[in-house]
Design brief:
The chain has about 140 residues and is α+β, with helices and mostly antiparallel strands. The protein is built from 2 helices and 7 strands. The strands form 2 sheets. Strands 3-6-1-7 form a 4-stranded antiparallel beta sheet, with helices on one face. Strands 2-5-4 form a 3-stranded antiparallel beta sheet. The two termini are about 35 Å apart. Keywords: Ribonucleoprotein, Ribosomal protein, RNA-binding, rRNA-binding, tRNA-binding.
Length: about 140
């Protein structure tokens, strides 16, 4: 799973996901992109699940790019622990997604396959996504 090699601070505040995305709005590498319509936090397990879907469905001729990286720690206190005692330990790594962010890009596939991949990826993420194309 994806995670940073090292970070300056182990525990951080959660970033805001209000408003629209200002970066990562255009296709940079592939012919098709999977763009977020909703907002939410994507963790490294979700990204890995989407990567497996793309790798299985693209085949040997296609190529894919992952344009997001989980570099924010998500902390959680253990179960049945009383209030206080500081912030919990990091549990997973997340990436905050706002509407408009292109998360994955594909090339070397036809439009039907790209639509199928976008549909499968939409089931794995906690918000709605759509397929965009360069053409």
């Amino acid at each position: 799973m994806l995670m940073p090699k090292r970070v300056k601070y182990r525990k951080n505040h959660l970033p805001h996901i209000k408003g629209k995305e200002t970066r990562g709005l255009k296709l940079a590498f592939g012919d098709y992109g999977i763009q977020a319509v909703g907002r939410g936090y994507v963790d490294s397990r979700m990204i890995e699940s989407c990567r497996v879907i793309m790798a299985k469905n693209i085949g040997k001729t296609g190529k894919y790019w992952i344009r997001i990286f989980p570099d924010v720690a998500w902390t959680k206190k253990p179960l049945e622990v009383r209030m206080g005692g500081g912030k919990g330990d990091p549990e997973k790594w997340i990436f905050p997604v706002k509407p408009g962010r292109i998360m994955f890009e594909l090339t070397g596939v036809d439009e039907d396959t790209a639509k199928h991949i976008a549909r499968l990826i939409g089931f794995r993420l906690p918000f709605e996504v759509r397929l965009i194309s360069r053409v």
